[in-house]
Amino acid sequence: MELLLHPFPSLLHPKPHHFPPQFPSKLRHGRLQEPVMASPQAPPLTLPLSLQETRSAAHRHDRSSSIQEAGARPPGPPARVEPRFVAETKLITVHSCAGRLGDARKVFDGMRHRDLLAWSAMIGAYAIRGMYGEVVALAVSMVEEGVLPDRFLITRILQACAYADDLELGRMLHSVAVKRGFMGRVRDVPVGNSVLVMYAKCGDLVCARKVFEKMACRDLGTWNSMIFGYCQSADWEEARRLLDAMRQEGTEPGVVTWNTLISSYARSGDLDVAMELLGQMEESGVAPDVVTWTSLVSGLVHMDRSDEALRCFIRMRLAGVEPNGMSIASAISACACLKLLNQGRELHSHAIKVGSVNNVLSGNSLVDMYAKCGEIVSAQRIFSEIPEKDIFSWNSMIAGYAQAGYCGKAYELFCKMENYDVRRNVITWNTMISGYIRNGDDERAFELFQMMESYGVKRDTATWNILIAGSVHNGYYDRAFRIFRQMQSLLMRPDYITILSIIPAFANLIASWKVREIHACVFHHNLELDGKIANALINAYSKSGDLASACAVFDMHPSRNIISWNCIILAHLLHGSPNEALILFSQMKQEGVLPDHTTLVAVIKAYGLMGKISEGSQTFLNMANDYNITPELDHYVAMVDLLGRSGRLKEAYELIDAMPLIPNSTVWEAFLSAAVRHGNVRLAHLAARELSAIDPGDHRVQRLASSLQDLTGKSVDVPKETAPNKGRKSDEVEGCSVEIRNNVYVFSNGDIVGLEDTVAELKSMMIKMGHSMLDIGVGSLDVEEEKEEIVGVHCEKLAIAFGISNSSHFKKIRIIKTARMCNHCHSFAKLVSKKYERHILIKDPKCLHKFEDGKCSCEDYW
DNA sequence: TTAGGGTTAG
């Protein structure tokens, strides 16, 4: 009784770590200065008869008892309630039911005296609309005014605390519930459950579990709530233990239990377990409902498995479960990912049929779907018809315009949205920045990037990723790397998208140290070396000339898939190790991984490099039967290369002639290379003409023709360039780059300004190698001639000379070239590698040449 | 009167 008279004993002696918690000394900073007690002058609280009649008998009973328990007024004869208050409370309910929340609030605010019923009506009006912030704020005011919630209202407020993440108020209400005796009896199970859920949702699982253990009675909801708590904290093991425990105690899991588990596994990306649980659910005789299916559909969409998501949606329909707005929205989102306009339209009609089309959720998915499918007008129409647009609506429409290249329209919405009381969030800014950078307006993108924090929006990892990916996309690789370093210096943690965005920019010979730095960053930030990152690293290490590191990443790969195998097989091909590539192919098959299109191209190429014509041809001929893969252009290219290398030009030509696909320039290029290598001028002419017909003015044709001329001494008649150069960017400088001690030096053909020392070095090298240079045919280059006459020298010779004189002996010389190597330079590099005992790596657009001890890994065929 | 599902950017 003492407790009832002094409902806040802890105010005098706060003990913060007590369980159940005591009332805090202050409910909120500054909100509650004094201990709150029921005021002795509080107006009478007897339930008005008129409203009582509308309530159930049980409710009536509970209400009167709760008022007595609260000790809100001294015992005595029931006091009269002024009829005006009763009428006002009724009016709040009427307004609220009619959707006039503002009017309801006006009545409430104007009341001179507010009893528990008035508070319940007003709080209920907010709670039913999910306006949990308002519920929490009102609840605090209510307690401050000395009114305490009954067992019904307390559950509503606890629910609001759970959603609004208000652990402080939640603890206080727990204390109220304990002290007022709402937690002990069978009929109080819902209150206990609400307390439990409040702790679980606010992340205090220890308290949730204590409530759970103390509950004298538990129902299905109790178990569900506790399981939910563990699922939310990703403690699947404990959640599954509870599932077993509830069954042992005689409570069979219901549809909500299964849905809780399935949805949390689906959200976490563990779709296989979610599917397994779906099976168990069906086996136990519980039919999956629309929530179960929606969890699976959306989980699959998030895991980039949209095709499966749509199959799942169909399964739901076949099971006779009618989709609602949420499930349709998820399915539309799957269509958006797959750009399935027709299926998206079908779902649109279905949304109209079930009346969810004006629902903001379906509307948002439709805007996104139409925009991604390129139907920007339809997207705009849906957007304009959404009655209460939220942040998702605006962001989706802005993204739609930006992706379609209409940055002006996107920016118009970006500026306009705040006039509609929708605050721009980090995604809005990111979308706009991404739109500008993707459309080549880097300046505006960086401007917005600089501005956003002054508008109170904090940049996140995605913001940085957009700048990095955009810089890579626009060819500003060094800028991308600077941004990457800057984000780390500002303690912004990179994620797997950062890594995947930046790696491809440095998958080349002259940036090997950058690949190592990126790899170190993966370790430093403890980023999971998941499939995609590992595959990207294998690829990057391989292309940066470091096959050993590529193999190391592959060996430690946690989840090798066909892409990982393709990466490592292609790495060995690139490094001139076709035999190892084929060994890996066998291992892959032994591990039960089926080859795909790319694997078979690599295998045919490997046989080609080894001169194993028959094995390669067999692979090509049997691929449809053995692996159900129809030969495509790439496979024909590999076959032409295989036959061409061995000089079987006639067979190669017959293959091209008989192929069911139209040969593209790559097929003819492979054939031309073979004809040039084997000195067959007639066939080289033929190939050059075909190539010119496909791609007039292709600079590669001109180069191959000149190679043929060099080789045979005969002129090759190909049409001169009539169209602009294709295959390279207009601003790209023809030349090569060499990496020395993490610095990159760029040379262009014949440009010797400021390179006097290098030219001198080159001269001395040539003298050292003496007659050898003349043996390979130096053409216009004569070491005894003056500098001016060296202008015709190819840049890789300069780069090699520069590398020899500027790097230590044990370092490899790494060079990349924009044009293919000529015979002279190739022979020169071989000689240098022997004479100077150096490893030289040169990557041209076609081949990685590894020169060592006078030999090249390409075996002189490229 | 309690418990489960959704849509946007890199």
Q: Kindly state the mean pLDDT as a whole number?
A: 81
Radius of gyration: 37 Å
Number of strands: 6
Strand content: under 5%
- In the CATH hierarchy, what is the architecture of the domain at 1-217 at level 2? Alpha Horseshoe
Structural class: mainly alpha
How far from one another are the termini? 96 Å
Please state the overall shape, judged from the principal axes of the Cα atoms: elongated
How many DSSP H or I helices? 44
CATH class of the domain at 1-217: Mainly Alpha
What's the main sheet like?
6 strands, mixed
Low-confidence stretches: 1-17, 23-79, 721-732, 771-791
Query: What is the name of the CATH topology of the domain at 1-217?
Result: Serine Threonine Protein Phosphatase 5, Tetratricopeptide repeat
Q: In which range does the helix fraction lie?
A: 55-70%
The largest sheet has its strands arranged as 2-1-3-4-5-6
Please describe what this structure looks like.
With 862 residues, this protein is mainly alpha-helical. Among the domains are: 1-217, Serine Threonine Protein Phosphatase 5, Tetratricopeptide repeat, CATH 1.25.40; 735-856, no CATH class. It is 61% helix and 3% strand. The chain has 44 helices and six strands. The chain has a six-stranded mixed sheet with strand order 2-1-3-4-5-6, covered by helices on one side. Helix 6 runs antiparallel to helix 7, helix 31 (547-555) packs antiparallel against helix 32 (562-574) and helix 33 runs antiparallel to helix 34 (597-610). The chain starts with a helix and ends in a 6-residue tail after the last strand. It binds one DNA strand of 10 nucleotides through helix 8, helix 10, helix 12, helix 14 and helix 16. Keywords: Repeat, Transit peptide.
